[in-house]
Amino acid sequence: MALTPDAPPLTKFKLLAFDIFGTVIDEEIGIYKAMEPLLARFPRSDRAKTSAFEAFLKLEASIHEEQPSLRQREVLAQIYTKIAKSWGVEPPQDEVEGFAGSMGDWPPYPDTVAAMQKLAEHYKLVALSNCDRAAFSRTLAGPLKDVRFDAVYLAEDIGSYKPDPKNFEYLLTHVEKEFDVRKEEVLMVAHGLGVDHVTTRGMGIHSAFIKRRTSDEDEKAFEGRVAYQWRWETLGDFAADVEKQ
């Protein structure tokens, strides 16, 4: 739903740029499943799961900023190792490698595929993801095999990770060159408040927030730092509103 009276009609846009992991792919469930060998050492502990996910997000942001040229697979290996050691566990190498290679198997949200297929009837779809080529190829061949993207722009190709403005500049430059779509015709669709919406606000890019599991408290914490003009709970809700236009 539109949040501001000056939000342009959704029919104005020609292209949707998607954050993938957390918006299209259920990153949290994927991480829990891939981290099962470590979590199994702490049975019946929901707190361990929550702690692991929170630690994952903090470590990922830190490594992306400090080592922007590192492939996401190597980022994931560092994260698993650091979390395990912080819990007093020296992880076997096969566990580390298993987690590092798991990203391409993380599942989509239940509404994702049908929603993306509907949206593809109205817009060009572009992925702008903090991912490497190998993992994203597996995502496209597996969890998103029934979703068609018109272009895919990955951190490995750009040489930096969101929220770096370079990634969004890359998006805008390439969609204008490849599809003759201007900045004002692009809508960034993303779950990540800090990863996507802070930067889109600073660059004046139209954006829509897909809430997913974000708490009201976390959303409130970003007030004044983000300026998305639309907000939906799921991609399915977004697609349903587009169908009404």
Task: Quickly describe the structure.
This protein has helices at residues 27-34, 36-39, 46-66, 72-86, 93-100, 112-119, 133-141, 155-158, 165-179, 193-203, 216-221, 235-244, and strands at 15-18, 124-129, 151-154, 186-190, 206-210, 230-232. With 245 residues, it is α/β, with parallel strands linked by helices.
Order of helices and strands: EHHHHHHEHEHHEHEHEH
Low-confidence stretches: none
Strand order of the largest sheet: 3-2-1-4-5-6
Q: What gross morphology would you assign?
A: globular
What is the radius of gyration?
18 Å
Classify the beta-strand content into a percent band: 5-15%
Helix tally equals 12
Number of strands: 6
Q: Mean pLDDT, as a whole number? A: 95
Terminal CA distance reads 12 Å
What kind of sheet is the major sheet?
6 strands, parallel
Helices and strands: which structural class? alpha/beta
Give the % helix: 40-55%
How would you describe the overall organization of this protein?
This protein is of the alpha/beta class and 245 residues long. It is 49% helix and 11% strand. The chain is built from twelve helices and six strands. It has helices at 27-34, 36-39, 46-66, 72-86, 93-100, 112-119, 133-141, 155-158, 165-179, 193-203, 216-221, 235-244; strands at 15-18, 124-129, 151-154, 186-190, 206-210, 230-232. Strand 5, helix 11 (216-221) and strand 6 (230-232) form a beta-alpha-beta unit. The chain is globular and about 55 Å long.
